[in-house]
Design brief:
Number of strands of chain B: 19
Strand content of chain B: 25-35%
Radius of gyration of chain B: 26 Å
Distance between the termini of chain A: 5 Å
Shape of chain A: elongated
Oligomer: heterodimer
Structural class of chain B: alpha+beta
Largest interface: A-B, 35 and 40 residues
Largest sheet of chain B: 10 strands, mixed
Number of strands of chain A: 6
Strand content of chain A: 25-35%
Order of helices and strands of chain A: EHEEHHEEHE
Amino acid sequence: MKKTTLRDYALYVRSKNAGPFNLTFEIFLKNKADYNSLVAMNFITPELISRLYGSPENQVQIFLCENIHTIKISIPRPVIQGSLQDKDIHSGQQAVLLADVEIDI
Amino acid sequence: MKRCKVWVPVGALGAPFPDESIEYAISRKVDAIALDAGSTDSGPYYLGSGTSTKPREAIKTDLRRLMKARQELGVPLIIASCGTCGTNGMLDWTRDICLEIASEENLKFKLALIYSEQDKKYLKKKLKAGQIKPLQNAPLISEEAIDSCTHIVGAMGTEPIIDALENGADIVLGGRATDTAIIAAVPLIKGIPPGLSWHGGKIGECGSQCSLSALAGGAILHFDEQGFEVETSIPEGICTPYSVAAHMAYENANPYELREPAGLVKTRNADYIAVDNRRVRVEGSEFEALPITIKLEGAGIVGHQTIIMSGITDPEYIANIDEWQTQLIDFIKAKVATVLKLSQEDYSIEVRRFGLDGVAENKLPDEAPLPREVLLMIMVTAKTQEMASTIVKLSNAYVLHMPLSLEGELPSFAFPFSPAQTERGPVYEFKLNHIVEPEDYKEMIQTVYMNVLGEKEEKR
């Protein structure tokens, strides 16, 4: 087992607005085998997302998209898009925190 | 076998798409040209102020190309969410551009204008009747919240677009619509099953975003009764089952279900199959019809903003920035209270520290090296522009000279501009994330027709 970040393990980790009130992430894996390993580890959990982004665990939605070997996560946007507190109108940089997480693989 | 081909030239009107894609779409004899011209993704300013992200020149250039392609093909051109936000004002702005082009190019056609800005009295009536429901993570709604919006639009579905086309419209310009509805309308008219029509709409809504060839601009969807095929609108562009399926996740909370005004689009059981090395066939999409709901988007002014920026590179200040910043803001607030007699309810101060945590909540580990430079941006929002600017001008000396210790020489930080402050004008927030349950869409959406006569004066 060696430590690596999700950024290195995945093909691409992306964040986007899903409308002004929701934030969505995709972890695109390189292939089916990597996807299956990550899913089997049960590493992407509501607890992890809640710790990183502060959303209540019961509001974290996780979708396992096997056909595109991708894990998708949606949460309420921590602040409404474009409100005075919003630092990232398009949410494009919010995935970096998730991509930086270390995994044992 | 019922068939229908829809060309989506580009993800949004005004974004670039190559000339060769027009020739290709014409050679494919498409049955309709459909695309959106708006989104909320640029934030609340555009809806709040009723303006477009894209300049008039970009809209006119590309609308001209599409109107000429439409004329050559003799098929409908459908564009909705006009002018980014889809307000009545921006629909009229787009109509005027369209009429100018018609006159310059001597184009004749029947034009439908579908207005979807909402009447506040109507919405308050629906609110009282319990026919406005919150979506996930919605702010609280009230009569005051409705009144606080400068503009409220309803996102139309396919119904008004279909009615306009059945009334003989050649060009349909619409206010706010769901991206998918703009594309799904013609396949639905042609008898394509709704699951496929809507799913194709979602796959095509960003043009070539569903392909590996983002610069292709557009996509062509070939619908039949069992499925649809998707290709890019340049011959060398490539769609793969992966690129097409992945688009279901794009800017969408749920990758398998999409709530549209007329019901729920379900794609969990859809298959994505390579037809050849550049085309993909999709089958198995489902649709559950539900009573019509129309989603509201509303934005209103929260204040007027003035900002001031300052660069810091002194390592002592960067190392102690939290303490220093607290001291700075306390001094500013005390000064505002003494000189302007304002309380903290009258204004707000937001601070961004670019280089440290101005973009995301980066929790740097303790051993991480300090950044070489930090850009401090202070944003003051108040009831009037004058008040916001006065507060910033009062803060100027503190932002420039605030010391860590009150003894010794005062530091001076790096202002990038003179004057140091910048007025940002009114700032807006999204205030609604709700759906309305109308008896009939016509309560919320109104259509006007014009016979456009080209060089001669147009008649309504």
